[in-house]
Specification:
The chain is α+β, with helices and mostly antiparallel strands. The chain has a single domain, classed as Alpha-Beta Complex (Nucleoside Triphosphate Pyrophosphohydrolase). 17% of the residues lie in helices and 45% in strands. The chain is built from two helices and seven strands. Strands 1, 2, 3, 4, 5, 6 and 7 form a seven-stranded mixed β-sheet that branches. The termini are far apart. The structure holds 8-OXO-guanosine-5'-triphosphate. The site of 8-OXO-guanosine-5'-triphosphate (8GT) has 16 residues, from strand 1, strand 4 and strand 6. GO terms for molecular function: 8-oxo-7,8-dihydrodeoxyguanosine triphosphate pyrophosphatase activity; 8-oxo-7,8-dihydroguanosine triphosphate pyrophosphatase activity; 8-oxo-dGDP phosphatase activity; 8-oxo-GDP phosphatase activity; metal ion binding. One of its GO terms (biological process) is DNA replication. Keywords: DNA damage, DNA repair, DNA replication, Hydrolase, Magnesium, Metal-binding, Mutator protein.
């Protein structure tokens, strides 16, 4: 099983979502940015690293939110979502082709990666 971290980055009342770029697994689906846990790093370190690499911003990882295990056709992932806040930097999309700052109630307007659905549902409650 692959552990994947995901950041729910809050700025005021809005949260950041990003769309997976063409050519990637699940291209075109929206997600919470993040990525696979490397050996010898904590989940918090992984998330801060991935967000810096993918989005060019520095975040603070505030708290664990929810996790979900999902079986894709060729892999099983443990998706771990954390509430985060923006510390500094301007976003540059390096891995995604779109981003949006949205209110939680707008989550229903976007098609999320299947593994994210329970996390999206929790955010809508
Ligand atoms: N970052 C992120 N990945 C997610 C989410 N939901 C979800 O199913 N994933 C999946 O978890 C894996 C995370 O991989 P990644 O973003 O680090 O790397 P990648 O696509 O370049 O890797 P890969 O193509 O080798 O699988 C991908 O298979 C991705 O589709 C999510 O909300 N955030």
């Amino acid at each position: 099983m692959i552990t994947v971290t995901a950041a729910i980055i809050q700025k005021g009342a809005k949260i950041l979502i990003t769309r997976r770029a063409p050519g990637k697994h699940l291209a075109g689906y929206w997600e919470f940015p993040g990525g696979k846990l490397d050996q010898n790093e904590t989940e918090q370190e992984c998330l801060a690293r991935e967000i810096q690499e993918e989005l060019n911003i520095t975040i603070q990882v505030d708290e664990f939110y929810r996790e979900n295990i999902h079986q894709y056709a060729n892999k099983q992932i443990l998706l771990k979502a954390f509430k985060c806040s923006l510390v500094s930097g301007d976003i540059i999309l390096r891995d995604h082709d779109k981003m949006a700052w949205i209110n939680n109630n707008e989550l229903t307007n976007y098609e999320f990666a299947p593994a994210d659905i329970p996390i999206v549902k929790a955010l809508l409650e």
